[in-house]
Design a protein that fits this description.
By secondary structure, the chain is mainly β. It contains one helix and three strands; from the N terminus they run E-H-E-E. The model has no long low-confidence stretch (mean pLDDT about 85).
């Protein structure tokens, strides 16, 4: 059995769907700037009102850190 780990960081200005617990997200409010450590488990594609079908990654949260507020 072979096991490998990979990591990278991304300053992402787009849609990302996060899956986490209430405890993990308790300190996060609207307009917060956050760092999220997570594992990508798939992708979610959806239709927009103007047409087109963007795809957003789905991450399971391992850790989240609020580092600022935009607003």
């Amino acid at each position: 059995v072979s096991v490998s780990e990979a990591w990278d960081w991304l300053d992402f200005d787009g849609n990302v769907l996060f899956q986490g617990t209430q405890e993990q997200l308790a300190d996060v409010v609207e307009d917060d700037l956050v760092k999220v450590w997570g594992t990508v488990i798939g992708a979610y594609s959806y239709d927009t009102q103007i047409g087109g079908g963007p795809t957003a990654p789905i991450l399971v949260i391992n850790h989240v850190e609020v580092y600022g507020h935009d607003g």
